[in-house]
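Tutorial handout. Part one gives the primary structure; part two gives the three-dimensional structure as tokens.
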Amino acid sequence: MRRDLNLILVVLFMLSANSAWAVDTPALLNKADSLYSVAYSKRNEFFYSNGQKDTGILGEAVRLCKEALSTYEQAYEQDRESPLACYKLGKAYLHVTYIDMSLVQEKKGFKLLDYAAQNGSLDACLFLLNWRKPDPLTSKDKIEEWYTKNRKYADLALGMQLPDNFNNYLALADVARLVANSDLANKYIAKSIDNGESNAINSLLDKQYSFDAMDLVASPQKQFEIANRLWQRGDDTHHDKENGYKLYKRAADSGFSNAEFQMGYILLRGIVSDPDTLKAVDYIRKAAEKGHREALNTMGHCYARGIVVERNPEKSFQAYKKSSDLGHNTAGWHVGLCYYNGFGTQENVKVAREYFNDYLDVYNNAPYMIALTYYKELSPEAIHWFEVALKMEKLPDSQRSDALRKLSACYRFGRCGVNTDIDKADRLLEEAAKYGDRELKDLIDFLKN
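Part two.
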């Protein structure tokens, strides 16, 4: 009786141990993945380091690689029927060639990968299809020969139920394309683009896939990105305004603000057809309502000048202000002008000056506008800033003439903290007249007579 009880206890212990052993398999695989990742990083550190190579780093990579292999093998021994364990060990047996050729077990690796592939491992299928695949620059015949040889893995991969979190549609698109399944190829390349997978858009634009796939791209943002590439690149391979325009329109009609603004720009400029200001401003207005800073700046112009919309200084100022607050690089200048002129808001030269100061390294006439704010206050600073403005080589003639006239007035009437100096005032006025002001020339003639 006691012997039977001991036997039962031993069996229960073994069952319990086996259960814990199986549960630990994913943990072991994760541990092996981490070890191998560090080993591969060490390998890269050794091979890509400058100067004298530290063989100790490579030795550490080999040690970690051996430990990773041992851990993969332990996980596999715990559950030999696990497609995941078979895939990871099989892949490791081949992939270690990049760290230490002596660790490679090619025959075992392919056997494990084949088992994993035929038992539902999509990763194993894709690995086998890509391991030592001919370079894309080699002949198409060699690549097709490779896929024909490994056709069973292509068929398995394309027939599998994909998990919700799958993130390698580009690889599947490549498989479908090379087995001449254009419908699946287009479907998967579109999904890879929507997923934001690296190189997906490049693969489409390099004409590896039919442009019909563009119609399947669902993300307005990705439609916009493809359109940008088609629209802006000037070489014969990618420059395609017709398809770019179609994608811009699809993205815009889906409410993507960047595309709405771009459509407005295209229609305003008449790039693909006659200009259509009405439709252009409608697209730009929609983008502005979504907080698109460039569109807001443009609507500021429209409301200021009454372009399509009714002239409205208050709305113009609000659009400029919001655009500036969102970081638009020139909207702040227009906000400053609004404050200076009291356009759509209460006049405030101090606030205007703060905005103009931000553009001293941007606009040649920024010192002139700062001078005007001080001039309105009759501040001595006006004299300094007018003089700074006059040193700007590219200051427009009209503003140069105005700066000289205002300086002349200061010296003629003793304004802005300077003493009256009629001779200097006259010289400044004569200088101003050189910049084409007919009325000013008449005034000088009157003063002289």
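Part three, for discussion. The two ends are 140 Å apart (CA to CA). The first helix runs from residue 2 to 23.
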